[in-house]
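We store amino acids, tokens; thus:
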Amino acid sequence: MNPSLSSEHTHSLWMGVDMPTAHTLNEDTATEVCIIGSGIAGLTTAYRLLEAGKSVVVLESRTLGSGMTPLTTAHLSNVMDRGLSAIIRLHGEQGARLAVQSHTAAIEWIERTATAESIACDFERVDGYLFASSNGSESHIEAEWQAARRVGQTTVARYDSASPLAFPTGPYLRFTRQAQFHPMKYLSGLARAVEEKGGRLFTNAHVTEVNANPHISVKTRNGRQVAANSVVVATNTPINNTVTLHTKQAPYTTYVIGARISAGSVPKALYWDTEDPYHYVRVHADTINGREQTVLIVGGEDHKTGQAEDGERRYAALESWMRERFPMAKDVLFSWAGQVMESIDGLAYIGRNPGDSNVYVATGDSGMGMTHGTIAGLLLSDLIMNRPSPWASLYDPSRPSIKAAGTFLAESLNVAAQYGDWLTSGDVASAHDIPVDGGAVLRDGLHKIAAYRDSDGVLHQCSAVCPHLSCIVAWNGSQKTWDCPCHGSRFDRFGKVLNGPATSDLSPLPASNPSPS
């Protein structure tokens, strides 16, 4: 099948929302709490601390909300992506019970805050459905049903027939009181509320260094500094922690398409199947191109970031899966990809950075970024205010993960294998083989070069060595980025850093002008 997708997949359904006008950090400043990152975790934390009377500065590398929040599919759920039976195995019944309670509380907090702040973010309660995807997956449905009963998850019921979808699914579970919303409308309203409460928001304030001893100082690329009593690193993956947390989680790229459907042709709900990687589906209605349209959002086809070169095939596979099961789907209007940090034990790391007393992190969202991000805001504000939280030990970044030792070993071996890229030849024989608007890693003696040819035929060259821990980056042809296969740092086509843990660009090399042969 020839998929009806563009050659560059960067525009999500949620983009285009007006965000508040932030400021430029033109001088050094001081605050009680400095928050790095203006996604849902950063702004929720800021809002809560301002309510408690703290002074807050938020630093954002680019524009407000320009990280992973606009690349989500915005499922709001207390149904664990890893599977509740796995969470019980890894964290015990009480830990799983607390996990469900915390995600439930996050959804309720979003609902209350949207109402209290008059944020028109299309929030609505919907059911969630986990359905069997193939022969043999019925056992997984049964295991999740039994796990839900063990932890007292009262919003779930099991069915063997009468699927809510237009295709047969076999047995499935129905979870009531899940939710969905428009993440960027919500984030815009939250940012305005933060400003109204006295929070100071700064954009184009790329943080390059966090010093915690003897006093906290946050340094930005333009040389400005923020002194603070506490700092929260809410950057999807920590930029302050070189090694420790990066050995306990792994970056995965996930793909999404949005196709036009007729209103009412697919019931509004959250849907997940039992494939590995699994598919996730929801419906959203909004004004698109000047008229009200309904979009079927389908995600999946995950892989380790920087370790696959077939993005176009994965978008096509998503479209094929969608059209087989949802024949009412029409033209594909949107396609995008996001990055998910998968912790080794299925829950986020939220709390004090290991080894620091006043540096806090939120990472390891494990496919549940909107609820984990909100949990981060609730938990981190409690920790900073020295208030007790029943979730503190569950999400503690320093928690032992003995029961996840197998996953830890597998991910560690995977990362170690990536350093073998230092010994390989280039992606192509020479720069002349790189097409217009294409990129490739070249070998020049002992050096690896990340080379991109722009629309004018100019070849832009950078070192292919990620400045975080010296892995060799890979060209992502569908997103037009350089991606690190070790810990998920990403850079634009010219080598400018987009995502941590790297805080600096790929080292530039002189540009050249040969046209491709």
User: Anything to note?
Assistant: DSSP finds eight helices and 25 strands in the chain. Residues 497 and 504 are 6 Å apart (CA to CA).
